[in-house]
Amino acid sequence: MFLLVAPFLSRHRLLAFSLLLFGALAATKAHAQAGSPPPTVRVSGRVSAAENKQPIPGATVQIQRTRRGVAADAEGEFLIVALATDTVLFRAVGYKPHRLVLGGTTLSQLVVQVKMVRDSIQLGEVHVTADRPDRAIINRALRNIKRPAPPVVKVPKKAPKPKPLFAVDSTAPRPEPPTISGSNVDWLYDQFSRQGKERRKVEQLKARDAAEAAAKKRAEYNKAFRDNRGYEQ
């Protein structure tokens, strides 16, 4: 169209028409870009280690702009939807982060193979402390502990020595003088002397009186119980 009208237009009119046509095209393109949503890209692929090409399950795939992301499955495969101008960030424990810049691509689907490099971390001096309170706290707690008093052991008192009811003579008894009561001389003296005969006679009299008293007592007992059919000795 421009070529057909060009021979019939003057130089000034041709320049003005060109500017008008360029402005119209720019306005049309801007209106189209403002009204349409930004294009999206389906980014899929596999995350693996660079040294042995083994999959890295659980690796995180994030959109750096929104921090929204997914995790790779057991085979290291993933799928995420991003804008064409986004940057995809890959992270895994023990590996260096990897960034994939889409850079305004016009593709609607992108399949990538991400090779992650191990991150070598050099540890300095490490102090390992057990899960226990500070030593000063322990010492303060020990000082505040009330130690139990030792149990009082009551020693039983000894019973007093028994006191005698009467005064005890501690002096030893005097030895009795020897006698001849147990000898044969005493027996002979008792049998044939006058004193011996009198002693035996007195003993016989005492025995007879005792027998008479016993018989009298038995007779009184029988008389008291005879009417009641009592027992008679």
Q: Concise description?
A:
By secondary structure, this protein is of the alpha+beta class. The chain is 34% helix and 18% strand. This is Carboxypeptidase-like regulatory domain-containing protein.
Rg, alpha carbons: 70 Å
Global geometry:
rod-shaped
Number of alpha- plus pi-helical segments: 5
- Supply the helix-strand structural class: alpha+beta
Calculate the mean pLDDT score and round it.
Answer: 76
Question: What fraction, in percent, of the residue positions are helical?
Answer: 25-40%
What is the H-and-E element order?
A: HHEEEEEEEHHH
* Major beta sheet, strand line-up: 3-2-5-6
Please summarize the sheet with the most strands: 4 strands, antiparallel
